[in-house]
Amino acid sequence: MSDAQVSPLFPAGSGDIRLISTDGTIFYVHRLILRLASPFFETMFEIGSEGTPQSNHLPLRVEADAKTLTCLLHYLYPTPCRPRITDLGQLTATLRTAKRYEMEGVIEQLRSVLTERYLEEDELIVPLYIRYPLPVLLIADAFGFISEKRLALRECLEGDLTEHLKTVISSDIPARIMIGLLELRKERLEWFRSKLNAWSPPLVEPCCSQKFLEHRQKIETKVYHCLEFQPFVDELTKGLRCDNQKVTTSSFIKGHLIAVPFDAIVQRWEREWVVLRKSIPKVPPIMA
Ligand SMILES: [Zn+2]
Question: Domain segments of the chain: what residues?
Answer without folding.
Answer: 5-113
